[in-house]
Write a structure and sequence with these properties.
The protein is of the alpha/beta class. It contains twelve helices and eleven strands. The chain has helices spanning 3-52, 71-74, 88-101, 121-124, 128-137, 145-162, 164-176, 218-239, 243-261, 275-278, 281-298, 332-346; strands at 58-61, 78-80, 107-111, 181-182, 185-186, 200-201, 204-205, 265-270, 303-307, 324-326, 329-330. Strands 2-1-3-8-9 form a five-stranded parallel β-sheet, covered by helices on one side. A two-stranded antiparallel sheet has the order 4-5. It is globular, with a radius of gyration of 22 Å. Residues 29-37 and 144-184 have low confidence and may be disordered.
């Protein structure tokens, strides 16, 4: 055997050993610490979904404002499939798959707050393919442990390795809890407990937030949240000046799809947000256009629009906060009150 062949064989052998070692580290050390919690949560959610089965009456899709739906208060059997910063394309696609799987669904709830019709994750996500996997993982069609580990788990883990900041944030949230700090001021009256990834409430991994933000932190929370939304909208418009019109069309096409399936209704909900959030400069610029669009959608067949944008907005003005986890997300107390109002409007 030639020396070059021996060297090649040794090289391949060493690379193979290193690869096996890396797989071993991933399988026995990293995966249980980082991924197992998410897998366990998905597995619990899958079991819950299967136990509901054909009794499933309602789902929630869209962005994180969808956390404000509380199905017991709605008097509906439902499950939440919201995703952080979800766009219209993601929401309608996921809802379509859900209705195909569970034809007895009566209501598809989708939040549409000012600005939400003006962006697409196609233009703002740093890793769009990885995001698609994340969205898919939290859907009725993919809550499967084997699929998660064979495809999603590995790809998401690799993505997080390269996005160090996101990885560190996730570990910090898991260990310390999700208490928000703006500057040096503590924003909640009591210490946050660690996130329990295996807690599932109405399909929400981690459950409803119970903490109520202190009033002094709400303006800063509003500014921070709106600044993020503004960047998302600006990036999307720079790539596609007709993104707003396209999202309007997507909603109408989804309503048409529901109409072809039977009695399922699309309920678009403008969610309760704080006064401080609505008074930010960017949101003020969006409001007129947004509500003109909402009015047009309300007259479209098979679409019902519920406007709760100022339903609880003044609750943070009178030296108290009884309902908001932060400037634009309801805590459990707010979700219950909001959902009872929706129940009344729908005559449930």
């Amino acid at each position: 055997m030639k020396n070059s062949s021996i060297l090649s064989f040794k090289y391949i052998f060493i690379i193979g050993l290193k690869l096996l070692f890396a797989i071993g580290i991933y399988s026995f050390m990293i995966k249980p610490l980082v991924i197992e919690g998410f897998s366990s949560a998905s597995e619990i959610k899958l079991k819950e979904l299967r136990s509901i089965g054909e009794k499933l009456e309602a789902i929630v899709v869209g962005n994180s404002h969808g956390r404000g739906f509380h199905f017991e208060s709605l008097n509906l059997v439902g499950m939440n499939f919201f995703d952080a910063a979800s766009d219209v394309e993601e929401a309608t696609s996921k809802a379509k798959d859900a209705v195909e799987l569970y034809p007895n669904i009566k209501y598809v709830f989708m939040t549409i707050s000012p600005g939400s019709l003006s962006f697409s994750q196609r233009y703002i996500s740093k890793n769009y393919q990885s995001r698609k996997l994340n969205i898919h993982r939290n859907s009725p069609t993919a809550l499967d442990k084997n699929e998660y580990f064979s495809t999603l788990g590995v790809l998401l883990f690799i993505d997080e390795l390269f996005e160090v900041e996101k990885f560190q944030t996730k570990i910090e949230l898991f260990v310390k809890g999700n208490s928000v700090k703006l500057g040096t001021e503590e924003c909640y009256d009591y210490k946050a407990s660690p996130i329990k990834l295996t807690t599932i409430e109405d399909g929400i991994i981690g459950g409803y937030p119970r903490k109520l933000m202190t009033l002094s932190c709400i303006p800063g929370s509003a500014s921070k949240s709106v600044a993020t939304l503004e960047k998302m909208v600006d990036k999307s418009r720079a790539q596609d000046k007709r993104i707003f019109e396209k999202n309007m069309l997507r909603i109408k096409q989804f309503a048409d799809f529901l109409g072809s399936k039977g009695d399922t209704q699309l309920v678009l909900v403008v969610p309760p947000l704080t006064e401080e959030y609505y008074q930010t400069e960017f949101i003020q610029k969006q409001i007129q256009k947004h509500f003109r669009a909402v009015e047009k959608l309300s007259s479209y067949k098979n679409i019902k629009v519920l406007d709760f944008h100022n339903y609880l907005s003044s609750s943070t003005v009178n030296n108290k906060n009884e309902y908001f986890h932060d400037a634009d997300h309801l805590a459990l107390s707010g979700a219950i009150k909001f959902s009872k109002a929706i129940k009344s409007d729908l005559g449930l």
